């Protein structure tokens, strides 16, 4: 029938246009990064270091080239050695009881006092076993700057706010024990908000979730109290700003602003999407990320449930409307031809 | 004073007829407004546009109750207040956003239907011109509305588009359009800021909708006397056919009344459209809400890619591949080219493009060229995309220059 032919032509050109401006254009604008499935083996770090060597080879100034190339080669060797050691420690069998003793050393900073140390507030570790990946925790204790892939910020990774851990817990077995302790004893049933606050909330606010870098903003009786609190938040933000270079963005609606692929790969290795960023790798496990993601969806796309509840009814209404309209049309047009 | 029945009861039919001529109005605008029978579903696009515009007005009224035109609170009033605190605010917002995008798809279908069937000539010029005026007004309405959430894309699209007016310097066409500080005058500031947002808010919710409603009435009025075209471009003897229809010879008559016969088909097509429309509203609205605009406006951080909404991409791409001043002229040409269609088409024939020889080729080339321009307008301007975009922009201009020549050689059918 002629009308269907016309409809096919209209649909064809509409879909070609849609394909061109949406899936195709976005595939060209944003580079696709493969997810490493939340396993932390340094693959991406080593690849990045190899790429830096290629870039260094293209430098024209011979003097500069030799220098940069030298540094890049050394960086690659360091990364390879580091992640190979992490892999070795990972194979050791940890002893949680022995780990608990060493873990006491962590409590000096990770005590929940909420005081900023060297730029950020050290996280409480009560939920760390549920949130973070085992390999990542091993790497973090060995060398925090290397593990979080922000070593480019430091000439000496001892300068990292948590750098001193390198001198406190050193033996491979000791590291394996502490990680075993965290992975078996620091385990809770996570909720989305707690996951967000622990993993992201010390640098990123979420104003739609009523969160600042100091946690949930309470209700205040007087304006003075509210302002006092506000000043505290600003102080904390200034310290983070000094440490990170800029205030990390509020994540209220980041769920709508970035694609799922971006979020997932960015969280596993921020350098893969924003080379040079001062955002550290957080080391979330797959389950830990699922919880963080649930929170971001809750604040960023709060109408999802309501949409899915109402959608089918509206569509069914219009299907019935269309069927009735068709019957009316048929009755009106029956004598015309 | 004209004759009127003093015994008629207030508000009875007779009473109303004496005062408002309701029966005559009903006949003229509805039951004896004759539409050719020989039409397809593309003839329903006008009513679909009217319905979508209605949805935009209604959803817009609900949104404007909570939207705050302040650079500090605009973003959160849309993304937080309306989305979480206002009952069904999310629904109104998604309807408004999706309708704003889909309305342009329907406008383009409506426009290309008119071009394909030659519905812009032989007495129908005013329909075409008022329609094109509506297209321009809808474009302004869409652009001003896009500023309001005050996200990154609002801010930077506002920056880029107002920068175009910075082209009128003493270097422009030998200084004939030298207007100093025009950009600042439009923005009310050196960069888009509070003054900019306030005035675009006013344009979006007051002045432009008002003008659009007026021009819609004019567009409908322009249609009443020359009547709607039909899918073979035949000249219908409306008086004869109307007589046949009223005598009951509906099969022999070539026309149908607007109400209820034509309307019954319109409403059916509208039903199908609404099923698709609400599918998009509930399950697939991302295409109408760019992710970049969910980052709050930041004048210190330029987004990696700045592009307009999909319906502006073709004219954006005509601007982009040329040097600034040449691009500005090309862009200006693209804006008015379609207005000139009834005068550039020199053929006396009103017929579907496929039966008009060279014009048929012209039509499909133009359609494909505009889709190519649209896609290239969104892609980053690098490498082969640049070349394709440049060729497509030239093709667009050349096609319009060729139009009078190829239609002049067309034989009278």
UniProtKB/TrEMBL annotation, chain A:
Q: What is its EC number?
A: 1.10.2.2
Keyword field contains Disulfide bond? no
Report whether Transit peptide shows up as a keyword of the record.
no
Which chain regions cross the lipid bilayer? 310-328
Keyword list (alphabetical) reads: Heme, Iron, Membrane, Metal-binding, Oxidoreductase, Transmembrane, Transmembrane helix
Q: Which GO terms describe its molecular function?
A: electron transfer activity; heme binding; metal ion binding; oxidoreductase activity
Q: Which InterPro entries match?
A: Cyt_c-like_dom (IPR009056), Cyt_c-like_dom_sf (IPR036909), Ubol_Cyt_c_Rdtase_Cyt_c_su_prd (IPR021195)
Return the Pfam families for the record: Cytochrom_C
Domain Cytochrome c spans what residues?
94-186
Which domain of life does the protein's organism represent? Answer: Bacteria
Q: What is this protein called?
A: Ubiquinol cytochrome c oxidoreductase, cytochrome c1 subunit
Annotated organism of origin? Sulfurovum sp. enrichment culture clone C5
Q: Supply the source organism's classification.
A: Bacteria, Pseudomonadati, Campylobacterota, Epsilonproteobacteria, Campylobacterales
UniProtKB/TrEMBL annotation, chain B:
Q: One Pfam family for this entry, by name?
A: Cytochrome_B
- Bilayer-crossing residues are 41-67, 98-119, 126-148, 200-223, 267-285, 322-344, 356-377, 383-406
Catalytic activity, EC: 1.10.2.2
**What are the UniProt keywords, alphabetically?**
Electron transport, Heme, Iron, Membrane, Metal-binding, Oxidoreductase, Respiratory chain, Transmembrane, Transmembrane helix, Transport
Where does the Cytochrome b/b6 N-terminal region profile domain lie?
12-232
Domain Cytochrome b/b6 C-terminal region profile as annotated: residue spans: 248-413
Look up and give the membrane topology term. Answer: Multi-pass membrane protein
Cellular location of this protein? Answer: Membrane
One of the GO biological process terms: respiratory electron transport chain
Q: Name one GO molecular function term.
A: electron transfer activity
GO CC: one term? membrane
EC category: oxidoreductase
Protein name per Swiss-Prot or TrEMBL: Cytochrome b
State the organism named in the record. Answer: Sulfurovum sp. enrichment culture clone C5
């Amino acid at each position: 029938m002629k009308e269907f032919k016309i409809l096919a032509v209209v649909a064809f050109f509409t879909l070609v246009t849609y394909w061109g401006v949406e899936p195709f254009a976005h595939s060209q604008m944003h580079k696709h990064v493969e997810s490493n499935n939340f396993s932390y083996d340094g693959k991406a770090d080593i690849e990045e270091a190899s790429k830096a060597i290629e870039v260094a080879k293209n430098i024209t100034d011979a003097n500069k080239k030799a220098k940069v190339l030298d540094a890049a080669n050394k960086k690659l060797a360091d990364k390879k050695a580091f992640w190979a050691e992490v892999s070795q420690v990972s194979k050791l069998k940890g002893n949680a009881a022995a780990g608990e003793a060493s873990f006491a050393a962590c409590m000096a900073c990770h005590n929940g006092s909420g005081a900023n140390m060297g730029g950020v507030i050290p996280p409480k570790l009560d939920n760390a076993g549920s949130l973070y990946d085992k390999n990542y925790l091993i790497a973090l204790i060995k060398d925090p700057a290397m593990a979080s892939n922000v070593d480019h910020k430091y000439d000496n990774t001892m300068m990292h706010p948590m750098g001193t851990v390198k001198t406190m817990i050193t033996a491979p077995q000791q590291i394996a024990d502490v990680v075993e302790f965290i992975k078996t004893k620091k385990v809770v049933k996570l909720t989305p908000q707690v996951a967000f606050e622990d993993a992201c909330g010390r640098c990123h606010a979420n104003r739609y979730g009523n969160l600042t870098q100091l946690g949930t903003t309470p209700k205040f009786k007087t304006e003075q109290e509210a302002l006092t609190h506000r000043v505290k938040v600003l102080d904390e933000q200034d310290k983070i700003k000094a440490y990170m270079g800029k205030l990390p963005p509020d994540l209220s609606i980041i769920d709508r602003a970035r694609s799922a692929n971006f979020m997932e790969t960015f969280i596993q290795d921020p350098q893969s999407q924003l080379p040079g960023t001062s955002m550290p790798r957080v080391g979330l496990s797959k389950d830990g990320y699922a919880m963080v993601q649930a929170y971001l969806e809750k604040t960023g796309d709060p109408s999802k449930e309501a949409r899915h509840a109402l959608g089918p009814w509206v569509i069914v209404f219009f299907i019935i409307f269309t069927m009735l309209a068709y019957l009316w049309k048929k009755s009106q047009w029956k004598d015309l031809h | 004073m004209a004759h009127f029945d003093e015994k008629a009861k207030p508000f009875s039919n007779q009473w109303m007829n004496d005062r408002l001529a309701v029966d005559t109005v009903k006949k003229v605008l509805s039951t004896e407004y004759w539409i050719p029978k020989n039409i397809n579903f593309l003839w329903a696009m006008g009513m679909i546009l009217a319905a979508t515009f209605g949805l935009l007005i209604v959803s817009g009224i609900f949104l404007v109750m909570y939207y705050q035109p302040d650079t500090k609170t605009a973003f959160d009033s849309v993304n937080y207040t309306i989305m979480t605190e206002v009952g069904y605010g999310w629904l109104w917002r998604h309807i408004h956003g999706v309708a704003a995008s889909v309305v342009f798809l329907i406008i383009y279908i409506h426009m290309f239907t008119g071009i394909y069937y030659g519905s812009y000539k032989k007495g129908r010029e005013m329909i075409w011109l008022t329609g094109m005026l509506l297209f321009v007004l809808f474009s302004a309405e869409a652009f001003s509305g896009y500023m309001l959430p005050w996200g990154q894309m609002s801010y930077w699209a506002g920056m880029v588009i107002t920068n175009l007016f910075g082209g009128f310097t003493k270097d422009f066409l030998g200084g004939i359009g030298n207007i100093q500080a025009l950009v600042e005058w439009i923005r009310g500031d050196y960069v888009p800021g509070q003054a900019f947002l306030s005035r675009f808010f006013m344009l979006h919710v007051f002045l432009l909708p008002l003008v659009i409603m007026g021009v819609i009435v004019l567009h409908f009025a322009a249609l009443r006397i020359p009547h709607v075209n039909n899918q073979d471009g035949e000249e219908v003897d409306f008086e004869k056919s109307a007589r046949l229809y009223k005598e009951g010879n509906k099969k022999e008559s070539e026309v149908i009344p607007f109400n209820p016969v034509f309307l019954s088909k319109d409403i059916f097509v509208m039903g199908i459209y609404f099923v698709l429309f609400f599918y998009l509203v509930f399950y697939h609205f991302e295409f109408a809400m760019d992710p970049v605009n969910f980052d709050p406006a930041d004048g210190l951080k330029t987004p990696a890619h700045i592009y307009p909404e999909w319906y502006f991409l073709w004219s954006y791409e005509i601007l982009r591949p040329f040097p600034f001043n040449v691009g500005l002229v090309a862009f200006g040409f693209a804006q008015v080219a379609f207005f000139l269609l009834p005068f550039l088409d020199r053929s006396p024939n009103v017929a579907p493009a496929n039966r008009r020889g060279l014009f048929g080729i012209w039509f499909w080339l133009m359609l494909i060229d505009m889709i190519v321009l649209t896609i290239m307008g969104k892609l980053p301007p690098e490498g082969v995309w640049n070349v394709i975009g440049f060729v497509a922009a030239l093709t667009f201009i050349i096609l319009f220059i060729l139009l009078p020549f190829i239609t002049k050689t067309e034989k009278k059918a």
